[in-house]
Amino acid sequence: MKADSTPYALSVGTFPPPAIAPDNPLTVQGVKLGRMLFYEKMLSKDGSMACASCHRQQHAFSDTNQFSIGVDGFPGGRQAMAVFNMAWNTNEFFWDGRAHLLRDQSLMPIQDSLEMAETLENAVAKLSADQDYKNQFIRAFGTDQITSELMSLAMEQFMNSIVSVNSKYDQVLAGNANLTPSEARGRKLFFTEYNPAFPDSSGADCAHCHSGKNFSNNQYMNNGLESDATLTDIGRQKVTGSANDKGKMKVPSLRNIALTGPYMSDGRFTTLEEVVDHYNNGLAASSTLDPALAYTMSTGLMLTAQDKADLVAFLKTLTDLDLMTNPEYSDPF
Asked: Mind listing the pLDDT tens digit for each residue in 291-305?
């Protein structure tokens, strides 16, 4: 049996070509299989949940619940991260980076007792009893012998195919749209550094952490949610064992941020206004707080009510309406 190796054409807009793993190139049939698995509820213990249950297309493949509810009714430990532009992710996966590759990440929710609560053996057995899946594994990988490794490769392909590159802001950069005065002022605040010596020209300094095409610096940082005394989630430290990583979490992309609330790893903020208020004057001091954020604590960001409204207006220009409606990412069943 021979796989259909027709390449999947990834539309990257003005992004640089991503570094797709050479041992798992995107193919039309591989992406199709991954999409089927992403929406497949029989991968859960009771057939009630799929990956897409907590990563919904209309919310930029995130969950509007503070904590996703698993098959047994238990909440997860952190807010579900959005799934798009994974092809440009360069620093592992999950808030704490415990999954080295996207293919590793893809299998963990299936086995997590708080999520889909199924064994890989049972998942493979259920798929193997379905002739449509056996046929699709042949098309994608040239074999009807379904394994969890092949499942993970297919899901990695599909998630790498989910691309968000056409927001209003992208259209502005291409010369095909214009920002409103409020959005334009918010853009300036976003990219201007904090400067306590010149309050009138000081900015919100958002690009310190949310930079580049994907509005993320691909780092793990402590953004001042908790002090050392009140911290209950040690974040990246649990993975690395280093005290220097205490309380640090992955810096998420701000693309589609208006769709992906609630915000932060614990989903504590329900609105973008609350997020801006946190950075303006709500930081908690801790031993691993990012130095640039710590630098702002003596005065806060000094944002006025209008500043904050304009900043939120700009953040909303990062919404990609194509992502919510693109049929290539929708439920295939």
From this structure: 999 999 999 999 999
